[in-house]
Specification:
Largest sheet: 5 strands, antiparallel
Strand order of the largest sheet: 5-4-8-7-6
Number of strands: 8
Number of helices: 12
Structural class: alpha+beta
C-alpha cells in the first residue's frame, strides 16, 4: 500500500525539501541502489509515505540495516521507490484462499442456527395466543361465557408475553462476536428443552381440549397462562446458565505469544474451551502489543551472519559424509559462542542510543510544530491577522516540519508499516481539534500500542484455529493446554485452577496497644 503527498496543495510553504541538487539526487540513487534492488524482489506489502519531492517519509525497508546509515541520512539524499500499490505475497494468497474455504461453511452454520432459533422463538410466542384463539374459532357457540377472572387473565398473558419478548431480545438476539467451531452446549440444551416443553403442551392441548372440544374457556385461558409462566422460568434458567454461571473466577490462564514471548494472565469462570479461547482473543486485541514481524529479523540476521562466517574444509577427501561437516560447524559455533554475546551487547546498546537520539529529535520537532497552531475564539475569528484554517488544513501545514524526524524514528523502531500518511494526518488533525498536547500526539508513536489501535489490514491475525487435545466443548480443567494459531504466530494458553484459600481470623484487643518509654543515660531524651 502506498500513500503519497500532494506537494502543490499541501506543502507549498515548505519548499526547502525540494532544494536538492541534481548531484545530490544522483548520489542518493547510487547510494541506495543496492538495497532497493534487494527489496524489489520481495513480495511483501509495503507502506511508502513520501515528502516532496518524492522523498519517502516512512520507507518500508525494514530489513535494511540501520548500522550502515549515519544519523544525518536523508538530509542530502533522495530515495525514489518503485513499490506497487497492488503487491501481494504468498502469505496473502494463502490467507485469502483459507478465508474463502472457511467462510462458506461458517456462514451456512451461522444462518442455520439463526433460522432454527428464530422459528422456535416464533413458535413459542404464538403458542399461548393460539391456545386462546382456537376455541373461539372452532366451537365459539359451545363455550361458556368468560367472566371477570377470565378477562383479567387476558391482561396477565399479554404483559407476561411482553416481558418474555423483551427478555428474549436482550439475551439471545445479539450480534455474534465470533464464529466458534462447535455448537454452544448450554444454548443447544435450552433450545431442545424449549422445543420438548412446547411440544408436550401442544400434545396435551390436542388430546384433552381439541378432541373433546372443552367448553370451559376459563380453564383453557389458565392453561395458556401456565405455559407463559413456565416459559418465564425457562428464561430465568437461561440467564443463570449463559450469563451468571461464568462470572465467578475459577481458573487463571496464562497466554504466551509464541514469537516474542509476550504474556498476560486472565481469570476465567466455568467456560468451555472454545468459549475460553474466545475470551482470550477478545483480551488479546486490547492487551497485547501489535505483532511486529520485523523485530524478529534482527536476531535471525545475526545468527545467519555468525553461521556465514564459518568455513568447513573436508581434509579426509570426498568420501567423508556430511555428518562430519555438521559436527565441525556445531563445534566451531560453540567456540564462537563466548564472543557472540559481546557483539549482541554492543548492537543492543548502539540501537538504544540511536532510538533515544531520534526520539529526542522527534519530541523537539513536534513541540516546535505545535507552537505554530493557535485556537481562535469566536470573537477573535473576525480580526485574526493570519489565515484561518480548519483542523485538517492545520495538520497538513505543520506536518512537514516533523515529517523527517517522525520518519527516522519509526524506521529505527521498525513501526513504519503500521502508520500510513493518511492515518498520521487524521491523528494529527484529531489532536488539534481536541486541543491535545504534543505529548498526547506522540503517545501513539513512541511505543507500540495494542492491536485495536491500528487498522485491520495491519493486524496479521484475523483467522484463528483452535488446537486442543481435549474436546473444545468440554469445560476448563486444571492443567489443560490449548493453542490458538493464526497464519503468522500462535497463542499458547495454559490453564491453572485458582487454589482454595483458607482464611482465618485473629482478634486484637484495642486496649492492648499500650507502650512505655525507656529512658537511658546515653540517649538524648
Amino acid at each position: 500500500m502506498s500513500a503519497t503527498m500532494d506537494t502543490e496543495s499541501t506543502y507549498s510553504g515548505y519548499s526547502h525539501y525540494s532544494g536538492h541538487s541534481k548531484k545530490a539526487h544522483r548520489q542518493g540513487r547510487d547510494r541506495h541502489k543496492s538495497p532497493r534492488s534487494k527489496d524489489g524482489s520481495r513480495s511483501e506489502k509495503s507502506v511508502t509515505i513520501q515528502t516532496p519531492p518524492a522523498e519517502p517519509l516512512l520507507g518500508n525497508d525494514a530489513s535494511r540495516t540501520e548500522e550502515g546509515q549515519d544519523d544525518n541520512w536523508g538530509e542530502t539524499t533522495t530515495a525514489i521507490t518503485g513499490t506497487s500499490e497492488h503487491s501481494i505475497s504468498q502469505e496473502d494468497i494463502a490467507r485469502i484462499s483459507k478465508d474463502l474455504e472457511d467462510s462458506v461453511g461458517l456462514d451456512c452454520k451461522r444462518y442455520l442456527g439463526l433460522t432454527v432459533a428464530a422459528v422456535l422463538g416464533l413458535l413459542v410466542f404464538l403458542t399461548p395466543i393460539a391456545f386462546i384463539l382456537l376455541p373461539q374459532i372452532l366451537w365459539r357457540d359451545d363455550l361458556e361465557p368468560c367472566g371477570t377472572v377470565c378477562e383479567g387473565l387476558f391482561i396477565s398473558v399479554a404483559f407476561k408475553l411482553l416481558i418474555l419478548l423483551i427478555g428474549t431480545w436482550a439475551l439471545f438476539f445479539r450480534q455474534p462476536k465470533a464464529d466458534i467451531p462447535r455448537v454452544f452446549v448450554f444454548r443447544a440444551l435450552l433450545l431442545v428443552l424449549i422445543f420438548l416443553f412446547v411440544f408436550s403442551y401442544w400434545l396435551f392441548y390436542g388430546v384433552r381440549i381439541l378432541d373433546s372440544k372443552d367448553t370451559n374457556y376459563q380453564g383453557i385461558v389458565q392453561y395458556a397462562v401456565s405455559l407463559v409462566d413456565a416459559l418465564l422460568f425457562i428464561h430465568y434458567l437461561a440467564i443463570v446458565l449463559l450469563e451468571l454461571r461464568q462470572l465467578q473466577p475459577m481458573f487463571a490462564v496464562k497466554v504466551v505469544r509464541s514469537t516474542d514471548g509476550e504474556s498476560r494472565y486472565y481469570s476465567l469462570g466455568h467456560l468451555s474451551i472454545q468459549r475460553a479461547a474466545l475470551v482470550v482473543l477478545e483480551n488479546y486485541y486490547k492487551d497485547f502489543t501489535v505483532y511486529n514481524p520485523t523485530l524478529l529479523t534482527a536476531s535471525k540476521s545475526r545468527a545467519a551472519k555468525h553461521m556465514a562466517g564459518l568455513k568447513v574444509y573436508n581434509v579426509d577427501g570426498p568420501g567423508n559424509n556430511a555428518s562430519g561437516q555438521s559436527r565441525a560447524m556445531i563445534a566451531a559455533a560453540a567456540r564462537r559462542r563466548d564472543s557472540s554475546h559481546n557483539e549482541l551487547y554492543y548492537e543492543e546498546a548502539d540501537h538504544e542510543r540511536r532510538v533515544k537520539k531520534r526520539r529526542a529529535r522527534l519530541v523537539v520537532a513536534v513541540e516546535e510544530a505545535f507552537t505554530h497552531i493557535k485556537r481562535l475564539q469566536a470573537e477573535e475569528q473576525q480580526k485574526a491577522p493570519g489565515e484561518i484554517m480548519d483542523p485538517r488544513e492545520a495538520a497538513q501545514a505543520i506536518f512537514p516540519s516533523m515529517a523527517r524526524a517522525l520518519q527516522k524514528y519509526l524506521r529505527t523502531t521498525r513501526q513504519q508499516q503500521y502508520h500510513s500518511m493518511e492515518s498520521i494526518l487524521q491523528h494529527l488533525s484529531f489532536c488539534i481539534t481536541n486541543n491535545m498536547t504534543p505529548k498526547a500526539f506522540l503517545e501513539r508513536y513512541l511505543s507500540p500500542g495494542p492491536t485495536l489501535q491500528y487498522n485491520r489490514d495491519r493486524w496479521f491475525s484475523k483467522q484463528w484455529t483452535l488446537v486442543s487435545e481435549e474436546a473444545v466443548t468440554s469445560g476448563l480443567q486444571d492443567g489443560i493446554v490449548f493453542v490458538l494459531k493464526c497464519l503468522d504466530f500462535s497463542l499458547v494458553v495454559n490453564v491453572k485452577k485458582i487454589p482454595f484459600i483458607k482464611l482465618s481470623e485473629e482478634f486484637i484487643d484495642p486496649k492492648s496497644h499500650k507502650f512505655v518509654l525507656r529512658l537511658q543515660s546515653e540517649t538524648s531524651v
